[in-house]
Amino acid sequence: MIAGDVLRGRAGRLVLLAAGLALGLRSLAIARGEPAYSLAGSAPIAGAAELLAGWSLIAAGLWAWVRRPGSRFGPLVVAAGVGWFLAEWDNPGAGAALTFTVGLVLRAACPAL
Fold it and tell me: What distance in Å separates the CA atoms of residue 99 and residue 113, rounded to the nearest whole number?
């Protein structure tokens, strides 16, 4: 439970929030690299909606985690936000084989979360 204890602290939550922000921006960059294969396409409003949806899930999950640290709901919603962004990574515009492979493997997690 060391990881859980670290994430319960204020610094851990801030690191998780910053990682979620960076993940969203990276996912948008991947989507813009090859818009034909992305969920958002090339429309700016669609990209903004994608970021808003993922970041809202991460923020709501962190807030729920702070309010009820013993509940699994908060971490699950944070994972759903991360899964939302990872759904863009199975795009040929990802630029790196490892990123593309991670996207292929973890894309199935998005609907489940």
Answer: 20
User: Using one digit for the tens of pLDDT, what is the confidence trace for 55-108?
Assistant: 999 999 999 998 998 899 999 999 999 999 888 888 887 778 888 888 888 877
Are 54 and 19 within 8 A, CB to CB? no
Taking the CB of residue 100, how many other CB atoms lie within 10 A of it?
17
- Count of domains observed in the chain: 1
3-class SS shares of the chain: helix, strand, coil, % to 5: 80, 0, 20
Q: Is residue 17 a contact partner of residue 58, using CB atoms and an 8 Å limit? A: yes
Structure tokens at 70: 């013993």
Residue 65 belongs to domain spanning:
2-112
Tokens representing 106? 């973890």
Query: 75 near 65, Cβ under 8 Å?
Result: yes
Whole-prediction pTM: 0.81
Measure the CA angle with vertex 53, ends 8 and 73; round to 5°: 35
